[in-house]
Amino acid sequence: MPVSTRAQQANAAGGQPWSSAAPASAPGHDGGVRREILTNHHHGLKEKMRALTLFYEQHKQQLASSQGAGARSRRSIQYAAGAMGRDENGKNAEEDVGAKRHNAVVAPVSEVAVLRENMAPPEERAPPPKSSNNVIVFSRPADPVEKENVAHGGIAMSCPVSKPAPGLPAPVARKLSLGGGVAARLKAVGEVGTGNTDAAGSRILVFVRLRPMSRKEKEAGSRSCVKIVNKKDVYLTEFASETDYLRLKRVRGRHFCFDSSFPDTTTQAEVYSTTTSDLVEGVLQGRNGTVFCYGATGAGKTYTMLGTMENPGVMVLAIKDLFAKVRQRSHEGNHSIQLSYLEVYNETVRDLLSPGRPLLLREDKQGTVAAGLTHYRAYSTDEVMKLLQQGNQNRTTEPTRVNETSSRSHAILQVIVEYRSMDGGSIVTRVGKLSLIDLAGSERALATDQRTQRSIEGANINRSLLALSSCINALVEGKKHIPYRNSKLTQLLKDSLGGSCNTVMIANISPSNLSFGETQNTLHWADRAKEIKTKALTTANEEVLKVSDCETDQAKLVLELQKENSELRQQLARQQQKLLTVQAQTLASNASPQQSPAPSAQISTPCSTQRKVKRSILAGNCFNTPDSKRPAADNALVRDLQRKVRTMEAEIEKMKREHLLQLKQKDEFIRDLINRKASNDPEAATVERRVVTRASVRKAQKDAAAAGELKSPSHRFTSPAPTAKKRTFWDIGGNSPSTLAVHGRKTRSHVAAETPKVTSMLLQPGFARQRAIH
Ligand SMILES: Nc1ncnc2c1ncn2[C@@H]1O[C@H](COP(=O)(O)OP(=O)(O)OP(=O)(O)O)[C@@H](O)[C@H]1O
């Protein structure tokens, strides 16, 4: 018996092109529709109106073409004809789609006829169902803004269907008409960081990363409900619950399309190079960039951002890349790199590198800043790694039922790169800021824990994520007022979401059908975020300061000296690193097998070469025998190493002395130059202040050196956080359980002290998290 679908009836009544053509081309094709058309008195009228409109359009175009120049008129006629042709084609295509849709409903149900984009992708198809009852048709809604919670062919969706973001192909049937979608997306991806955006601004790029199924999930018998196809399409399928008899054996699903989607086999390096490497390049050119991970608790945000010792994440790879690029370009000018690391926990902002009182946010011309946040100047990747590790130790963490080392706070690492160079008669200064954000997991109260402190944390996390989604909604809808002030997180993200910034969102999802709700929610917001446009980034944060001829030489000299200084500091840091390595080797070769962990604890920097050296020595089996019985060859090796250490120590001492002397001379010279300049030119006062500040920092080092204890780079940077200081609320250690019970807040160092067996990647040197997916 012929069936008329709701879409057909709506189209017949509303005069959709394909439905109006149907009765003429296929007489008697659908009794229901024809009866409705016959009884609809407006049907003929609408057809006439459409013909008249078409005629009027053609007439207008002919008129325009006759008025224009010959060649131009020819073009416009061709265009009009082309446009009409396209229109007809489009119509035909739509008719075709409509007919197919109709067939899918009325024809005997077969797998080929009914599989739609919303269902599992072709590769994942289940064997053809025997009975038509098992197959559900996912019809496309007639109106793109129609809410999905209207059932379509038996599917009940809970999220609104969004319009496609500009530059992205729309999901579902719109794929049919977008041959160039991939190219457009790739172009969009290629534009990041280069600032090659249109005047209206650039779009937030959204990526999805699927993590592997965890051991727990496998044990719970969960199935994979996510499939990624072509590295961009995400198919989400919900399997009906066995106790839900009404919807037994039915599946519901959804299809999303993102700038790129990463299957569970994707490496950290691939994720970094696709999502963030262009932003790093942009930052070096004076543009701001932000990467943030969003997703449910345990979905892999921290893994993506920090990673493990073996598989470092985006933060670590970005820092390494940044320093490598700066080193390559050291001849072009002087780069300075500063970083800060903060967390938003229970709506308070805390400095992770120098824990103390909560910080206040204030707005200034640079955007929203945390007053009193410490900015460290870093000269090498290893220094940054140490700072990152130190910050992670202070980050609030708490095992939840879903994730044993769940991050209970949003962490923001900001790296500011300042570049200065002489260009003819002017000083060019460029400042770029890279923000790397690991958000706390969105979660359901029951999915995590219901203990008081946890539920307060959960409520605050959800509140700030809700504020984030309100901002995303307001930005997508083009509202004038964006509610950034609703939470600390959105205040801090203001620049990244609505300012001049290249922004990347990585949505992390779990494959397990037990997390279907969370995954759908994450994908929904990621899909929505695709539509946010940030402000145009046509110009970099660049300042050009003209200097008069007589000052040019002095300014050049100052820059050269500053560059040389920073190179010397880098050299010093490298030498100290080498010394540490050799010392560790010596210790290892002197130690017995039982003592061997000691030196490894001393090497806190995640340096792969160190590990290799250490491993090769361990493989050499040279410490299994006591000193007396040690073979002569081993003793010779030890002596050789010791000799090397002594030589290197002497060399480093010599270099230190030389560097200090050079630094002292150069500092004095710079100060002298600036003083002279300042006395002639009041404008130079700013420069003077800056240099004097640096010099004052160095003075402390000089004093220390004079007292015979030169501080290592790590000392230099960790010194603002005094080691022996009055204890504050945040500093109370893991041996104060009462305080923990009262405040209920734990940092990763507390967790490390209390639960040595639960190894978080954030607790390991270099963030190595041993508890990988099993
Ligand atoms: N791509 C991946 N490959 C291997 N293991 C992963 C991957 N993603 C996540 N994991 C593992 O899954 C577990 C949870 O990941 P992670 O802690 O990063 O989640 P999260 O989203 O940060 O959670 P929360 O919001 O609670 O902090 C970890 O054990 C991590 O090692």
UniProtKB/TrEMBL annotation:
Residues that coordinate or bind ATP: G295, A296, T297, G298, A299, G300, K301, T302
Coiled-coil stretches: 558-585
Residues in Kinesin motor domain copies: 203-532
Molecular function (Gene Ontology), one example: ATP binding
Region (Disordered): 1-34, 588-609, 703-729
This protein's GO CC annotations: microtubule
PANTHER family: CENTROMERE PROTEIN E, KINESIN-LIKE PROTEIN KIF19 ISOFORM X1
Protein name: Kinesin-like protein
Species per Swiss-Prot/TrEMBL record: Oryza meyeriana var. granulata
